[in-house]
Amino acid sequence: MATLDIEEVRACFPSLESGYIYADNAGGSQTAQGVIDRIVDYLTNTNVQLGADYFVGMLSTQRVAEGSFSAAELFNAGSIDEVGFGPSSTMIFENIARALENDIRPGDEFIITDEHEANNGPWKRLATRCNAVVKYWRPTPVSADNPYSVAYKVEELLPLVSSRTRLAAITACSNILGSLVPVEEAVKALRQRAKEKGAKKIEVSVDCVAYAPHRKIDVQQWDIDYCVFALYKVYGAHNAAHYVRSAALQGSLTSIAHHFLDVGNKPYKLQPGGPGYELVYGATAVVPYLKSLTQEDDLTASFDAIANHEQTLLAPLLLFLTDAKQVARGVRVVGTSKIDLSRVPTVSFVVVGQNAMKSKDIVGAFDKKGGIGIRYGHFYAYSLIDNLRPKLDVDDGVVRISLVHYNTVEEVEKIVDVLREVLA
Ligand SMILES: Cc1ncc(COP(=O)(O)O)c(C=O)c1O
To answer: What SS3 class is residue 237?
Structure first.
């Protein structure tokens, strides 16, 4: 298995030179130098409207078009005509839901994971507009000792499927629990059950925002119809990318672009305005950055190396939070405590019981110390936190420490040292 040269990795991120410990990466990663360079280059040399015939116009058009090749590679889409860009994942999901409106019938059913509101709200609003029914696939406890140790189980998804199931909107990785949802297995089982039940048409939308920094997306292998991730979590800038299967572009979506634009069955159907040209061009540097992580020049090898390194970050943190002393203190990991490839190093916890501490106060102690950025709250996975039992204060939420491959074991040890002090 390829390993990362962590010094070389960190040298690609100018912000890391300061030594500040970025441990809120699930909120947004740092930006690779290559991305910054392309954004500056675009704005300096080709910042004109697309589609014009003069030289600079043609160059800017070409640069933005290159974004589709990068997105197709990151999704492993079959064609560049299945991918596009938007301002944020939340906006893209809303656009997909708007474009889907003419293809939803009263009584159709949506199954959604109780996760980040970006992949929940648009479907709930669409259900209200179309008189469809929403069902929830919720994570349930996996440990008798810790009620907050919850995970998604495929066997709990299947009873939700009926002859009216039209859409499943699931997450590939929880931005709170850090656990990976077995997308391929879940989708296979879901489609099989839907077929047995006689469902006429079922489509699957996957939120890959919390997944994409850690693992390779494969929309073809997963057999899904819609997929979205945000570049600002994958070492890029503040924009997002979408995949829509060509069958869905043709048969499910109505264009939400200007009526006089001949968008055909292209992803522009979902793009009511410009995609943020400099940011799309910036995104073209993400694939080269990721590929540079190993000698193989291959995304699969890079993500293997990322996963491998991230396990070494996960271990000290989870071992500390789950040691007998911390458990007796009231520390409860929100999510599973397994140190294996079923999760990423996004680790959430609460401190409950007689000596309970507010998440806000724990993070406050970090802020006072300075030099480390972690965060507390519901992280927009409002219902996920609100539905945990025993009930938590949803606004105080959880403390979340979220690491990515450019973090070091030494940084995690520093975080653990501060935690030990704060929780003493
Ligand atoms: C799992 C998940 N989905 C969706 C989003 C929303 O992404 P965006 O800011 O691109 O709308 C986030 C943002 O944190 C997230 O963590």
So the answer is: coil
